[in-house]
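Please fill in the sequence for the structure shown.

STRUCTURE ENCODING:
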């Protein structure tokens, strides 16, 4: 375990924001992680955790010890009737490579979550979701280390309190645990879900004469999801970004009906409890922000929910653009947008 001081984090976040960690430790096994946490306790250092850096905004420098997860390892165990397989992956495994590995091993159920950036350990934090599926639907349990004690903890699905882009790790247990591994239940029989309209549309767009038109394999679904994502979202390696910058707001039915009367084109996705989720992208687009330029940052010209670093942006400048959007959307539609990525570090003096 090697602890370094004053480490530059710019290449370790997909928004390419500047920021330095007071102390930084890359851990490639759980013993080193336990030692790093003990070091932080002994020296009274606050601990922050970094995975792939695809859902963080550095407001400034990070004080204390930042642990960077690089643990590896994937295991699988047959359950009961043999149709269900439990897969356990270390927190430092790349999420998309893990998805591809399970598919190659003929375990199905993660195909809709293909190509989401980041590492396995961060997946439960915001209950990653895309194309009709959320992690919680495959989730069994996770193992973590409690930062204050170094003790091993286990969380089952109920204990994680998953919601839309939400879990206990963003609420009551925020900042208290380092997730070390995640266990998911997959199936040995394919059972693809292509109910998400954009996914169904992409799959039915097969060339004429392709006789697989109505029979899609999990590999087909994974490939289609990857293709849609590559087309819709900017590649962070080309244009630094963190995916969706705001959560999609969920409205009470009455407020939704009132808005829809005013804006008949506003899309709405009814939820099981009667509420309606609306695309924040539509609101931001409609308000004229698509392509708008802030200080060293911009709203992506092709997708209004994505903020991009135009080159030398600071966390403060990016958050100023976000704040301007929030204020305007609140004024126009009476809806308070919530930032999706996690904010780390204290605001820098600019
Ligand atoms: P990081 O950004 O490193 O960390 C995110 C948060 O989790 C931080 O608060 C961090 O402290 C905490 N954390 C990370 N690892 C651990 C751990 N082991 N234990 C405890 N805390 C931890 N998300 C979706 O849900 N759906 C999408 O479709 C989607 N598309 C995206 C597309 C693009 C182009 C980008 C850039 C991002 C997208 N995201 C999406 C967001 C992001 O990929 C996910 O949130 C992902 O799970 C973040 O993983 P990470 O390893 O990069 O986490
Ligand atoms: N739209 C616009 N203008 C735009 C872009 C989109 O009006 O510039 C409207 C369109 O009506 C479109 C709707 O917004 O139908 C939804 O857009 P899209 O299908 O791109 O999905 P999204 O709501 O923007 C959500 C997730 C994504 C996830 C996709 C696919 C959130 C906050 N975002 O995006 O997750 O990949 O659905 O399931 O829930 C992420 O969390 O970082 C992320 C990328």
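FILLED IN BY: designer on duty
SEQUENCE:
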């Amino acid at each position: 375990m090697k602890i370094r001081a004053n480490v530059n984090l710019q290449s370790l976040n997909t928004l390419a924001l500047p920021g330095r960690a007071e102390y930084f430790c890359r851990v490639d096994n759980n013993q080193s992680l336990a030692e790093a946490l003990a070091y932080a306790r002994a020296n009274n250092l606050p601990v922050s955790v970094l995975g792939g850096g695809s859902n963080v905004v550095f407001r400034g420098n990070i004080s204390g010890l930042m642990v960077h997860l690089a643990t590896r390892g994937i295991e699988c165990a047959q359950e009961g009737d043999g149709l269900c397989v439990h897969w356990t992956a270390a927190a430092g495994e790349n999420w998309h490579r893990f998805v591809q590995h399970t598919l190659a091993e003929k375990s199905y159920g993660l195909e809709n979550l293909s190509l989401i950036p980041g590492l396995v350990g961060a997946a439960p934090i915001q209950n990653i979701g895309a194309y009709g599926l959320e992690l919680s639907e495959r989730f069994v349990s996770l193992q973590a280390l409690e930062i204050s004690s170094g003790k091993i903890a286990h969380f089952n699905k109920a204990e994680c309190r998953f919601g839309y882009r939400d879990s206990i790790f963003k609420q009551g247990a925020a900042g208290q645990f380092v997730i070390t591994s995640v266990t998911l239940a997959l199936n040995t029989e394919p059972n693809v879900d292509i109910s998400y309209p954009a996914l169904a549309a992409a799959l039915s767009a097969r060339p004429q004469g392709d006789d697989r038109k109505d029979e899609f394999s999990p590999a087909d679904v994974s490939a289609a999801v990857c293709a849609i994502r590559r087309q819709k979202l900017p590649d962070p390696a080309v244009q630094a970004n963190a995916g969706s910058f705001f959560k999609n707001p969920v409205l009470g039915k009455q407020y939704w009906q009132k808005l829809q009367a005013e804006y008949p084109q506003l899309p709405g996705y009814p939820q099981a409890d009667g509420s309606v989720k609306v695309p924040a992208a539509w609101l931001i687009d409609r308000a004229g922000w698509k392509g708008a330029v802030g200080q060293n940052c911009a709203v992506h010209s092709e997708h209004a929910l994505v903020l991009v670093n135009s080159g030398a942006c600071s966390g403060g400048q990016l958050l100023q653009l976000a704040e301007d959007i929030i204020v305007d959307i609140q004024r126009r539609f009476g809806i308070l947008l919530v930032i999706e990525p996690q904010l780390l570090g204290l605001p820098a003096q600019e």
